[in-house]
Design a protein that fits this description.
The mean pLDDT is 94. This protein folds into 3 domains: 5-94, Uridine Diphospho-n-acetylenolpyruvylglucosamine Reductase, domain 2; 101-211 and 439-452, Uridine Diphospho-n-acetylenolpyruvylglucosamine Reductase, domain 3 (2-Layer Sandwich); 215-424, 3-Layer(aba) Sandwich (Vanillyl-alcohol Oxidase, Chain A, domain 3), CATH 3.40.462.20. The strands form 4 sheets. Strands 12, 13, 14, 15, 16, 17, 18 and 19 form an 8-stranded antiparallel β-sheet that branches. The chain has helices at 5-18, 31-35, 55-67, 118-126, 142-148, 155-158, 186-192, 228-241, 284-288, 307-311, 336-346, 366-369, 398-412, 439-452; strands at 22-24, 48-51, 72-75, 91-94, 101-104, 109-113, 130-131, 165-171, 177-180, 201-208, 210-211, 215-224, 246-254, 269-277, 299-300, 303-306, 323-331, 355-360, 384-392. The protein contains 14 helices and 19 strands. Helix 1 packs antiparallel against helix 3 and helix 8 (228-241) packs across helix 11.
Length: 467
């Protein structure tokens, strides 16, 4: 039976004396700031937020929640668009203070706390000219991105973030602190490479690193909307034959109010192409030259820049607290009709911050070589993935933007699978989360769930693994 309000208040007071971190209640001045999500559409009020200072605090918070039969949400970076990191009337285990980071440069391994974000991790690894595929927004949480897939600019050459997860420490539903590596609890490590937080609260992660930077040849090129079909078709041709080291993506977006864009075009749809050469720096200019097939850009900002700056280049386009709704999927054959549909809807963006993104994957890249033996996320036989992202500020416009995004998704469903990775499942698509995995993978994940969390304590995830 769920505890009474008085019993819960007494219990929370006792919990506050047991943890080294803080127990934040609705009466505390920072409660609203700490419960707020990246997606401004999420407005949930937990009974308490436990700002943990270590694994002992996580153990205590789990035990408290179970004793009082309260739901648990785990908060790291907080970019989860469906808002899985916060819950109503439950306990939020907030790991954002766990920000340790240790780089073993000779071994090319980084060990980091679960509260780190990508800007912080990139800063540490780039001191040694190393990186792992990271989020496209620097404030994204490392742990949430990694265990739900981890799409980033480097995925063609190194695969998803989850692919490079080589170890973790996790607090289980029964309060054990365990390590998962290829040698110990290997099934738990495998499941954590993409199946979300179904198995416990992660306190630490370890990733394999690869050499890149600190300086790279990267940046953006912009093209007028009237050339969109021409540019996207040319981009399709270039990326079909491009080496994995040529990374990046294309978007139809509203032109930024910057001096390199003619004033009359600012705020109107435009084609942007982000470019990154992730291979040998000596080959960079020759490798990027293939993109000259797209024609003369309106503005060319590609040049030598720091990898850290590249990783935060798109931050201004995704401000914290905006209302956020999206759809996406994989495309095997990027046909002329699919491109025409993309341009038609991209020409009719409903918000200055909304955009239509097209990302090259490729069947001859490292991304495509990872099998279900290594990660639940497979098979990877699509050449492209797309995302329709709507961001706006006014709650009164919710219906307008959600309906527009759904209209685009319906149109694109003729050309795509409309299946995506767990991190890209929208707030109203969680019932379809199981479609992210094959039936064999789902069966294996359910066995692991039964072994580690048979009571389904950790159930705020895209993919339900019980029943």
């Amino acid at each position: 039976m769920t505890a009474s309000a008085d019993d819960l208040a007494t219990g929370l007071s006792d919990l506050a004396t047991l943890v080294r971190g803080r127990v934040v209640l609705a009466s505390d001045g920072d409660y609203d700031a700490l419960r707020a999500c990246f997606n401004g559409m999420i407005d949930r009020r937990p009974a308490a937020i436990v700002r943990v200072a270590g694994e002992g605090d996580i153990v205590a918070a789990i035990a408290f929640a179970r004793r009082h039969e309260l739901p648990i949400a785990v908060r790291s970076g907080g970019h989860s668009a469906p808002g899985h990191g916060v819950c109503d009337d439950g306990i939020v285990i907030d790991v954002r203070e766990l920000k340790t980071v240790e780089v073993d440069a000779p071994a090319r391994i980084v060990r980091c706390g679960a509260g780190l974000d990508w800007g912080e991790l990139d800063a540490a690894t780039q001191e040694h000219g190393l990186a792992v595929t990271g989020g496209r927004i620097s404030t994204t949480g490392v742990s949430g991105l990694a265990i739900g897939s981890g799409s980033g600019w480097l995925e063609r050459v190194w695969g998803l973030t989850s692919d490079k997860l080589i170890g973790l420490r996790i607090v289980t539903a029964d309060g054990r602190v365990v390590e998962a590596t290829e040698d110990d609890n290997a099934e738990l490590l495998w499941a954590s490479r993409g199946a979300g937080g179904n198995f416990g609260v992660i306190s630490e992660l370890r990733f394999a690193l690869y050499p890149i930077g600190p300086q790279v040849l990267a940046g953006a090129r912009f093209y007028p909307l009237e050339r969109a079909v021409e540019v996207i078709r040319a981009y399709r041709g270039v990326m079909a034959d491009a080496p994995a080291e040529l990374c990046g993506g294309l978007a139809i977006q509203c032109a930024p109010p910057e001096p390199f864009i003619p004033e009359q075009m600012q705020g109107k749809p435009i084609v942007g192409v982000l470019v990154l050469w992730a291979g040998d720096p000596n080959d960079a200019h020759a490798g990027v030259a293939a993109l000259d097939a797209l024609g003369e850009p309106l503005a060319d900002l590609v040049g030598e820049m720091s990898y850290v700056d590249l990783q935060r280049m798109t931050d201004p386009a995704y401000p914290y607290g905006m209302r956020d709704y999206f759809k996406g999927g994989f495309i095997d054959d990027l046909s002329d009709d699919a491109i025409d549909a993309m341009v038609r809807y991209g020409s009719d963006l409903r918000s200055p911050l909304s955009n239509f993104i097209l990302l090259p994957l490729g069947r001859r890249t490292h991304y495509a070589t990872v099998t279900e033996a290594h990660s639940p996320l497979g098979p990877r036989n699509a050449d492209w993935t797309f995302q329709v992202l709507s961001l706006w500020a006014d709650p009164g416009e919710d219906q307008l933007h959600r309906e527009w995004t759904r209209d685009v998704a319906r149109a694109m469903s003729s050309y795509s699978s409309m299946i995506s990775f767990p991190n890209f499942v929208a707030i109203d698509d969680t019932a379809r989360g199981g479609d992210c995995f094959s039936p064999a993978v789902i069966a294996r994940l359910r066995e692991i769930k039964r072994a580690w969390d048979s009571d389904n304590v950790f159930r705020r995830n895209v993919v339900a693994l019980t029943g």
